[in-house]
Specification:
Elements (H helix, E strand, L loop, with lengths): L1 H31 L1 H4 L15 H19 L6 H23 L12 H15 L23
Helix pairs in contact: 1-4, 3-4
């Protein structure tokens, strides 16, 4: 039973993170924290950019929930939540930084319909170079309208 609760919390957190990431991307990154996110919508001129500060900032809830979950016995339920956040962060890194933006160069061709959909949605998001007017704020889910024409 405890394994079911653990995995339910972990997977539930992972999937809820997409909604949290959408809101943060839409209202924080394209809102009052635009000064960090702005250069991410410009052609890259260096390997690291201000937008990468968000990685450090967003790792804090994962680290804190894991520490508290391990150190305080009655807060055990924070462990799977911390792992869910961490897992989402890893998926985000692979998708966003490696597959879409190719921050580390490697040969990859998206043949999977799902991957092509989220790549197209993210490319549509980056067509907008301004704070306002962008679309497709999600990272691991995209509306069917971004489906590739096969």
């Amino acid at each position: 039973m405890q394994y079911a609760i653990f995995w339910g919390l972990l997977l539930g957190t992972f999937f809820l993170m997409e909604g949290a990431a959408w809101c943060i991307h839409r209202y924080v990154m394209h809102g009052f924290m635009w000064f960090w996110h702005k250069e991410h919508h410009q052609p890259p001129d260096r390997f690291l950019e201000k937008n990468d500060y968000f990685t450090l900032l967003f790792s804090i809830p994962s680290v804190l929930t894991l520490i508290l979950g391990y150190e305080v016995a009655w807060l055990w339920f924070l462990k799977p939540i911390g792992y869910g956040i961490l897992l989402y962060g890893l998926f985000y890194f692979v998708f966003h930084d490696l597959i879409v933006h190719r921050r580390i160069k490697f040969r990859f061709v998206a043949k999977n319909r799902y991957l092509r959909r989220i790549i197209r949605a993210h490319q549509a998001h980056h067509r907008c170079k301004d704070r306002k007017g962008a679309e497709a704020f999600g990272f691991l889910y995209a509306l069917p309208r971004y489906d590739p024409e096969d």
